[in-house]
Amino acid sequence: MRVAHIHPDYAYGRNAYQHMQVVFEKVLGKDRVEVVYEGWPKLFGVTDFGPYITSILRSEADVVATSLWAADWINFYKQALGYGLFKRAKVASTISHGIAPHMVESDYPEGQVAGVHANYYFLYPEHDLNPLNREFVRRYYERWGEYPTNGSEGAYVSVYLYKSAVERAYQALGRWPEPEEVIPFLEGASIMGPAGILSIRARPPNKHQGYKNAITGISKVDPELGFSIVADPLRIPVERITVPEGWEGPVEPTMTYNWIRETWREGVLPV
Amino acid sequence: MALPVYVLDTFFYASLIFLIVAGLNLIYGILRVVNLAHASLFTFGAYATAWITTSLILPRFGESLIAMLVLPLVLGVILVVIVSLALVTPLLRYSQGRGDAFQLIVTFGLLIIFEDLFKLIWGPYPVSAYTLFFQMGFVDFGGLRYPMYKLYVILFTAALALALWYATYRTSFGLVLRASSMDPHMATALGLNMSRFLVIVVVLASALAGLGGSLYLPVASVQLGVSTEFLVIAFVGMVIGGLGSFIGAVLGSLIVSGLRTLTLIVFPELELVVLYLVAVIVLLWRPEGIGGGRGW
Q1: How far is B278 from chain A (nearest CA, A)?
Q2: N or C: which end of chain B has fewer CB within 10 A?
Q3: 3-class DSSP state for residue A127?
Q4: Tell me, what's the ipTM?
Q5: Which residues of A touch B (CB under 8 A)?
Q6: Hey, what's the torsion of the CAs at B89, B92, B93, B97, to 10 degrees?
Q7: pTM
């Protein structure tokens, strides 16, 4: 598989490159993956991606792996449509659909790997199966006139998680808790939100990090909604793809990277 | 085989930079003011074009090619010129002859004012109107494909540059322009009304910048920070090409764009570094720029 990488040149982009690459090599086998191009546009610093797109075309890549987001990605994909990039290569994005849903317009090519942000996309869990998500999306749309993003859901569920921790602290202490006294009630706590379960890790590595199960999918234009959505969702339990509690190893570039490199078996999908 | 596409992209980017640098050089040549806010007029042209296209043109004319080609451009440029006359001209006039530090602070302040104005009017999110870009379609050749719109921009700007060249070297207006940029005091002594001339020059420079923004918009979205992105490149182009000179604007924008494309092909992360490096080399070796700083 010939991979062309293009990521914004800062921590997130560099991390995305490393993690995508290490997983490509582990799951497909190191000798079956070839990086034919690396592009590092400055975050929100490049508006004309012409030379980047041309270089990717020239590299004859099969897959374009990218973590470009927001305006960068919109500029890139619109310009790439003009150059016919999507006819030559598939795009695997970590976050193409991670913005306000209506902003990924109906000209977005179908059949590309469409990533979302912070593991929430407003259509999943499916509304007919999950009334919490259905009601959240419905009420959000009624109030704001657009569909919720991961930020909306994150803000919503975090407040409720904090509320439940304060309530439990109050019950345990018999009085209104100080902020520091709420911390033990957040560690290891979890709550069911519109996105599914949000849990807070109690022990290192990544102590106090929030986790949700991962989701990604394939881009498709929804005729009713009128914009490009994430379809055929792939849901992965987050503990399959992130460094577990209690694991010890090198911290650079990330512990998850080293955990994957050391513990995953070659040629095996971890799900 | 990708070479013609790289070359075309270089000319496209050079077209946008030229439209900014030409204005910068006009203002520097005549007023001896370095206008840090000039690229903001480019951005304003882009914002105005997006707004005009989405709220005035598309609802009224649908996706009519002619309407989308002509109207946002013309109306956008007019808007930019009005804003420039209202906001920019008085401040430029005031900064004349007050020293470099003063000019830098005033024009930098203008830059910040513009950024806040953009945020106030259009918000912090990107604004776009890609319709024209896709409407014009693509041209396929040898397995590669190139957007027609970019070809249009290249040809349009080339024609404009030619018209500017003609105006500069073959008309009496151009003669006055060149004379007053070489020696403003002498020009006044010979009876030129510098005050009125100044306005004409600023209008021309702003129109060019606004045109640049208007031509740029269909290709990408515009948001806060675009001004700075283009300002930096335009300045490097100005330095390399030659301050205050027309030939400098042409050469500077072509060189800067060529260097950028080359660096992006070979070593993408070094894009800005290479440009600054070349600017430093030019300043050390030939401070008046490759085009020569003999005025417009």
Answers
A1: 20
A2: N
A3: coil
A4: 0.80
A5: 9, 38-42, 44-48, 50-52, 54-55, 57-58, 70-71, 74-75, 78-79, 81-84, 107
A6: -170
A7: 0.85
Q: Could you say which of A47, A54, A58 has the minimum Cβ distance to residue B9?
A: A54
| Tokens standing for residue B63 | 């996706």
As a CATH number, domain A2-95+237-263 is 3.40.50.2300
Place of tokens 């001339």: B197
- pLDDT tens for each residue of B37-69: 999 999 999 999 999 998 888 888 887 888 888
CA distance B210 to B195: 23
**What is the C-alpha separation between B88 and A188, in angstroms, rounded?**
58
The class that CATH gives domain B3-285 is mainly alpha
List pLDDT tens digits, range A235-244: 999 999 999 9
Domain map of chain A by residue range? Answer: 2-95+237-263, 131-200
Q: Which residue among B6, B149, B226 sits closest to A51, beta carbon to beta carbon?
A: B6
Closest CA to B268 of A163, A162, A45: A45
Residue whose structure tokens are 């675009």: B226
